[in-house]
């Protein structure tokens, strides 16, 4: 049910957007009410009369967790004794967001819980909105991991997610005078009711030290790593509930602890700070998501984080395997390990170390098992995101692993040399050790060589992988690269965040649409139905009113819910081209001022996203967006027809409000640079029309929806590559454009920065020079696409038809489909009927 929060008063919209459900049974509601009250009283120690919203959330979550545990224990009891195959998904990020609504929805408890809380004088939204947003990820990669875990549970695939339990997730973004400032994110301040601490499950993680050679029982030399430093990885489990409670899997996050909490001898000598030094150093590993790696110390901490959780995961899954099986020889028959990007790529060397050194398998057998068990998802073609580590750092921090990597590389290059004698260029290209900028370990190549399958995340991205970063490896291992286009959880991104649209879909298509996303295709027959269009538009209007209220409360800007809501929500990066959107905003603003009598389409530009703390150019783009917003929103000459809103601290909860309200979805990355995108899927699923380049999964969206139903523009990936190769300069585009020069002059000349006229000169100069991200090159094409969108929006019936067709074409982009493909083609695990 859609609700609005206005200060302390909750009001329900006139439109009834709740999904049709039978009235909950009184006995079930009473039992749930009593359970919540017991949790409040005996676990939290609060009387109902004194409880705040956060207390009600905690008590409610603990009561729901009991239901989850009941399902989990019943599932374990009913599972056949013969162990099958388990998927282990290793990811440095899991952007899970709030869980209360997801868990009660998947358990089928929403209406019962709503009624139970009502009997206690509390609304469900009071409890739900008090939950902190677990920001354990940076963006699409981490949110994808969360969607994938939920889909594995929904498809009945036994699985564990492995990551880090960060004390502080991605930073909390504050916008002060237009500049991003970062503050610690404190999601654990009041505890996490969803997790179970498992102090009995801990694994010792080593760093540094030396490697000794010993004679094994078979007379062969054995290598023993004697770390100079050890850290304990302690497990915390969060249940992951599948749709209709089908299965409950685990997200197991590791917290770093020192083996000894402090050095008592140093403390007693009066060295109170020094006594805690080891604890502080150890716990820094799980302190913050993505510490800045601008310094050598930051780089080392990032590597320590990656090895820490990867080693803990591998030790843990081996422990679990050996509880059911007599040896590790058949590990690959029972275990599928998915590496989510290069962050856990050290798993190749670590699994070899564990199998060879700890379990004393022959090298060749260990290598066969490792390659059969591991698979690797590549998420980017950006050089800076394909991790490499300095060899001296690796040798100091992980000496045994460097020995293993050297041997893997030697055998790998021997095989290449035998097949391609005399081809030194090929050897240098496919080596696991790069020599271009100092000797560095190439983690992408390591993951590729040590996996049986390597997948891209959209058809275009996978083709570009074959043609660019892994071109030579693809030639050596044909068929190893496969495509698995991303998807999103329809439970989270339709049913939970847009219950009004869900109710309409159930009414129009029947309840099977909740279980069969492909049924959305039947909406095409209703796209021209005026009555259905009206209901579809009423849902969108209610969602836009909710977003308008949020904008007013967050940044004090009043916007018209009847305007075209043009939304760009994603990490701030030059290749995602928020700058292109800002340039068009300035062009529109200048045109509105120059032609005040023209019948303009009212537009609200919504931006939200975070820039990496050390990414100064991205921070400057945020500042420009805020400066443009300040000028535009205060100018009476545009008569409120153009508003610009930069919403701070973008996270999952913010997306759940923005996505259902969007009319126009900005997917405007430089072609060939966005691996897939998942925001594009969420927005189109909820009836937003896409304005975008043919990049990432937008290519496949255009195929499923129809190119004619998207506002496509700009250079293709091949054309971008050609222009870069031919020395393209943006000044050519400026000279050919009717208005780009004026826009750049206004920005570069200080119209939007009267306090510092030269603030944006670096941005302007970069566009007129190499224009690497093709912002100037695509500007006129983007401007024309924006004009087409504005004109279409003036015809409500035509716009509504297109919006319905966009939703109708999105059934294929479910994460259930993605996971079913992984299961069948990479992991070799069955999907439960």
Q: How are strands sequenced across the largest beta sheet? A: 7-10-11-4-3-12-13-17-18
CATH architecture of the largest domain: 3-Layer(aba) Sandwich
Instruction: Report the end-to-end length measured between terminal Cα atoms.
Output: 30 Å
The low-pLDDT segments are 1-20
Number of beta-strand segments: 24
CATH superfamily (homologous) name of the largest domain: Glycogen Phosphorylase B
- Judged by helices, strands and strand pairing, the structural class is alpha/beta
Number of helices: 33
Modified residues (N6-(pyridoxal phosphate)lysine): 682
InterPro entries: Glycg_phsphrylas (IPR011833), Glyco_trans_35 (IPR000811), Pyridoxal_P_attach_site (IPR035090)
Catalytic activity: [(1->4)-alpha-D-glucosyl](n) + phosphate = [(1->4)-alpha-D-glucosyl](n-1) + alpha-D-glucose 1-phosphate
Pfam family, one: Phosphorylase
What does this structure look like?
It is found in: Cytoplasm. One of its GO terms (cellular component) is cytoplasm. It comes from Neoroseomonas oryzicola. This protein is α/β, with parallel strands linked by helices. The strands form six sheets. A nine-stranded mixed sheet has the order 7-10-11-4-3-12-13-17-18. It folds into three domains: 90 residues, no CATH class; 243 residues, Glycogen Phosphorylase B (Rossmann fold), CATH 3.40.50; 251 residues, Glycogen Phosphorylase B (Rossmann fold, 3-Layer(aba) Sandwich), CATH 3.40.50. The two termini are 30 Å apart. Helices cover 47% and strands 15% of the residues. The N terminus is likely disordered. Helix 26 links the parallel strand 23 and strand 24. The relative contact order is 0.10.
């Amino acid at each position: 049910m859609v609700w609005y929060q206005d200060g302390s008063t909750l009001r329900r919209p006139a439109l009834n957007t709740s999904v049709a459900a039978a009235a909950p049974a009184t006995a079930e509601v009473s039992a749930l009410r009593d359970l919540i009250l017991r949790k409040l009283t005996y676990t939290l120690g609060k009387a109902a009369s004194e409880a705040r919203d956060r207390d009600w959330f905690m008590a409610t979550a603990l009561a729901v967790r009991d239901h989850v545990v009941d399902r989990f224990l019943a599932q374990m009891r009913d599972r056949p004794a013969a162990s099958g195959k388990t998927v282990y998904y290793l990811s440095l990020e899991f952007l899970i967001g709030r869980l209360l609504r997801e868990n009660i929805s998947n358990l089928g408890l929403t209406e019962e819980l709503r009624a139970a809380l009502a009997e206690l004088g509390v609304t469900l939204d009071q409890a739900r909105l008090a939950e902190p947003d677990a920001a354990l990820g940076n963006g699409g990669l981490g949110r994808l991991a969360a969607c994938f875990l939920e889909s594995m549970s929904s498809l009945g695939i036994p699985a564990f997610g492995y990551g880090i339990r960060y004390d502080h997730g991605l930073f909390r973004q504050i916008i002060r005078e237009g500049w991003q400032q970062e503050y610690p994110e404190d999601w654990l301040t009041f505890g996490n009711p969803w997790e179970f601490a498992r102090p009995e499950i801990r694994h010792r993680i080593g760093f540094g030290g030396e490697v000794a050679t010993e004679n094994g029982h078979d007379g062969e030399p054995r290598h023993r790593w004697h770390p100079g430093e050890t850290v304990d990885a302690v497990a915390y489990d969060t249940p992951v509930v599948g749709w209709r409670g089908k299965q409950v899997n685990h997200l197991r996050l590791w917290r770093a602890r020192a083996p000894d909490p402090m050095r008592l001898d140093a403390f007693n000598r009066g060295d109170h700070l020094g006594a805690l030094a080891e604890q502080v150093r150890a716990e820094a590993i799980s302190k913050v998501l993505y510490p800045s790696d601008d310094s050598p110390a930051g780089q080392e901490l990032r590597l320590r984080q990656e090895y820490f959780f990867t080693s803990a995961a591998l030790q843990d899954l081996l422990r679990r395997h050996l509880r059911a099986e007599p040896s590790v020889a058949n590990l690959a028959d029972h275990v599928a390990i998915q590496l989510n990007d290069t962050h856990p790529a050290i798993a190749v060397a670590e699994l070899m170390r564990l199998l060879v050194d700890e379990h004393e398998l022959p090298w060749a057998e260990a290598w066969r098992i490792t390659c059969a068990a591991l698979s690797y998802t590549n998420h980017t073609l950006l050089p800076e995101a394909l991790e490499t580590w300095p060899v001296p750092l690796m040798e100091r921090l992980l000496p045994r692993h460097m020995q293993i990597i050297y041997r893997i590389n030697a055998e790998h290059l021997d095989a290449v040399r035998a097949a391609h004698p005399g081809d030194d260029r090929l050897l240098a290209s496919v080596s696991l050790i790069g020599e271009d900028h100092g000797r560095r370990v190439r983690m992408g190549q390591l993951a590729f060589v040590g996996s049986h399958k390597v997948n891209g995340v959209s058809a275009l991205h996978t083709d570009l992988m074959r043609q660019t970063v892994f071109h030579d490896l693809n030639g050596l291992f044909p068929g190893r690269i496969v495509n698995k286009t991303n998807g999103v959880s329809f439970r989270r991104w339709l049913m939970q965040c847009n219950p009004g649209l869900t109710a309409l879909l159930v009414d129009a298509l029947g309840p099977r649409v909740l279980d069969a996303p492909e049924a959305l295709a039947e909406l095409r027959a209703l796209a021209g139905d005026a009555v259905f269009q009206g209901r579809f538009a009423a849902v969108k209007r209610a969602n836009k009113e909710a977003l308008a209220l949020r904008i007013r409360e967050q940044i004090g800007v009043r916007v018209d819910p009847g305007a075209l809501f043009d939304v760009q929500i994603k990490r701030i990066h030059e290749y995602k081209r928020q700058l292109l959107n800002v340039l068009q905003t300035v062009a529109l603003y200048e045109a509105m001022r120059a032609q005040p009598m023209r019948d303009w389409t009212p537009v609200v530009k919504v931006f939200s996203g975070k820039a990496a703390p050390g990414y100064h150019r991205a921070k400057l783009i945020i500042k420009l967006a805020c400066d443009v917003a300040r000028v535009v929103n205060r100018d009476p000459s545009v008569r409120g027809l153009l508003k610009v809103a930069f919403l701070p601290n973008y996270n999952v909860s913010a997306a759940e409000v923005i996505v259902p309200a969007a009319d126009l979805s900005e997917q405007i990355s430089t072609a060939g640079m966005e691996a897939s995108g998942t925001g594009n899927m969420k927005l189109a699923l909820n009836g937003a029309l896409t304005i975008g380049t043919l990049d990432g999964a937008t290519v496949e969206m255009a195929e499923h929806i129809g190119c004619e139903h998207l506002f496509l523009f700009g250079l293709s990936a091949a054309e971008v590559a050609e222009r870069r190769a031919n020395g393209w300069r943006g000044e050519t585009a400026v000279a050919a454009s009717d208005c780009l020069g004026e826009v750049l002059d206004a920005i570069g000349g200080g119209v939007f920065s009267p306090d510092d006229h030269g603030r944006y000169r670096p941005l302007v100069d970069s566009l007129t020079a190499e224009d690497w991200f093709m912002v100037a090159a695509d500007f006129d094409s983007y401007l024309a696409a924006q004009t087409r969108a504005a004109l279409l929006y003036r015809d409500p019936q035509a716009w509504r038809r297109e919006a319905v067709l966009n939703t109708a074409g999105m059934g294929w982009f479910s994460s259930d489909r993605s996971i079913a493909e992984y299961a069948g083609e990479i992991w070799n695990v069955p999907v439960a009927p």
